């Protein structure tokens, strides 16, 4: 079984992700890098993060690398700092997975996660256990170093307005953005109400900002008469918005809103997103005479294409937006600040800004599926889509387009034992029909196998 998921290496703390395992993973990455390299290490607030990070630091120092511990930070802060001043980075996080999980993301000097080819080299070194061991005179050094202020300065310099004067409810989700985003909005003259700020490794709301976990945020936006609410995931690379009218805007909508602004300012350009993104982005790109590339799902995949194709902007439907001027990786805080700036500069509400776009109805579902069945389920699903379809896209899973321009995407998750079903049409009823069909077919396949 491969070590890597869609993004990083993950497991259940002290079960499948033990200190011994992590030590070997750090030795592996250390052996891939030049002796004496500077590696920045950060972590999210999970209960196991200090344990995991200690093993990471030991493995790096053993291979002759210098470890710089920046403590609890959102991963976009670590990515930015690595790009500015370090040879590599490691983030201790399991992103949106449940609290019992943890994991590692390996960052290159350009601020991006290691590529699929580098993952293969990583696995080869790990399996051989042929790790470099530094001579006692060249064992690496350990230093603590705070990188948050430099990141905040870069974000504040990146936006045009220096005072937004908005009232915003921030749902930190007990995650790493508690160290950054409240202070950013304070510096931008915003009044904030903060939910779920405690960083103790227990997620009161749940680690992932989904519609079914955002009830308290919606209620607070209404009761506080706030301009908007913003929810973040555990490692802080995603942001989901709630309007002043309690509407939840998924990443497709806010990503398209930002893309519209960026394409308009640049009179066209290239946008990168994934096959799971709403058709709204196609409308936005065409309206602005832009170009679009759609990739497999995964932030590092989108980021790699942004770099190679010199795109202006990229995003995923899960709320992760990428601004290559700062870092070609997902950034929840910068996404939050840019959307807030757009609202403040327009003089309109977030609801009003979104209302100018055509409406697409979306639904997403999750079905539990054991890892060993995923490939067989996917094969079965592909046998069912031969009739009444306009087009089939197999970039990632199977995406089926119908004659009425509705579509459904069915794919196995790369990070959890589940199948994901994404569907979209121009009517709620049709979208519900698609979701029901997709969920039934996945369950049918699992039952047969």
Automatic annotation (TrEMBL):
Tell me which residues make up the Alpha-D-phosphohexomutase alpha/beta/alpha domain: 3-132, 151-245, 251-359
Entry cofactors? Mg(2+)
Which Gene Ontology molecular-function terms are recorded?
Answer: metal ion binding; phosphoglucosamine mutase activity
Q: Which Pfam families match?
A: PGM_PMM_I, PGM_PMM_II, PGM_PMM_III, PGM_PMM_IV
Q: A GO term (biological process) for this protein?
A: carbohydrate metabolic process
> What sequence ranges are listed for the domain Alpha-D-phosphohexomutase C-terminal?
387-435
Keyword annotations of the record: Isomerase, Magnesium, Metal-binding, Phosphoprotein
Enzyme Commission number: 5.4.2.10
Keyword Metal-binding present in the record's keywords: the answer is yes
Q: Which domain of life is it from?
A: Archaea
Per the record, the similarity remark reads: Belongs to the phosphohexose mutase family.
NCBIfam families attached here?
Arch_GlmM
Instruction: Quote the protein name from its UniProt record.
Output: Phosphoglucosamine mutase
Q: Which species does this protein come from?
A: Candidatus Naiadarchaeum limnaeum
Gene name tied to this protein: glmM
